[in-house]
């Protein structure tokens, strides 16, 4: 079984600054994937970034990047140059790859970007 | 851009009543999912569906729950006899695969179910 833990229920950041959201996970799988999903207010969850566990290089998507520490089972999300539109609930999630695609989620971190 | 849609956005029902939550996945997707989030708790997997049958279900998905794809476009979740503890936000998701054989799940906006 997989577990995902997000220890920061809420965070805030000033516009244009950088913020890091934390996530730890536990799994007995060798092949797994990690994800960050964003859910803006009253909107659906959308995928922000994904990391394959077998890749050592940290994933990046424009202003979003991850710090994947496999030994520590840590998967943090860094948002650079924060924008007002980044205000959302952020969920860390994992799945075990192979033929098992169900996602296991953390409780989420509510990020507020202040002007 | 195609989106997963869900109806209704809110549903209030009496304990013991049947409810059907509806989802329209993205049209060329083949895998479908239901998740739920009880207020203040994590989003939890309920069931996955592929090739017109359940591919995996969680312990939550007991005999009171069922899913079907009645007409090739809709994907429904039925709760036969609702309980107070079924009150939650229910999310539908569908997925496809990219050229790198990576699956991405696209989520609907959710249906908030309140059982009184």
Give your account of this protein's structure.
The complex is a heterodimer of chains A (115) and B (116). With 115 residues, chain A is mostly beta strands. The model of chain A has no long low-confidence stretch (mean pLDDT 93). Chain A is 0% helix and 50% strand. The radius of gyration of chain A is 14 Å and the shape is globular. In chain A, the strands form three sheets. In chain A, strands 2, 5, 6, 10, 11 and 12 form a six-stranded mixed beta sheet that branches. In chain A, strands 3-9-8-7 form a four-stranded antiparallel beta sheet, with no helix packed on it. A two-stranded antiparallel sheet of chain A has the order 1-4. In chain A, strand 10 (88-95) and strand 11 (104-105) form a beta hairpin. Chain A has strands at residues 3-5, 10-14, 19-21, 24-26, 33-39, 46-52, 60-61, 64-69, 74-79, 88-95, 104-105, 109-114. Chain B is an all-beta fold and 116 residues long. Chain B is 0% helix and 53% strand. Chain B has strands at 5-7, 10-13, 19-24, 31-37, 43-50, 53-57, 65-68, 75-79, 88-97, 103-107, 111-115. In chain B, the strands form two sheets. In chain B, strands 2, 4, 5, 6, 9, 10 and 11 form a seven-stranded mixed beta sheet that branches. In chain B, a hairpin with a 5-residue loop joins strand 4 and strand 5 (43-50). Chain B is globular. The termini of chain B are far apart. The model of chain B has no long low-confidence stretch (mean pLDDT 93). The interface between A and B is medium-sized, with 22 and 24 residues.
For the structure shown, list the relevant keywords.
heterodimer; A: 115 residues; mainly beta; 6-stranded mixed sheet; 12 strands; B: 116 residues; 7-stranded mixed sheet; 4-stranded antiparallel sheet; 11 strands
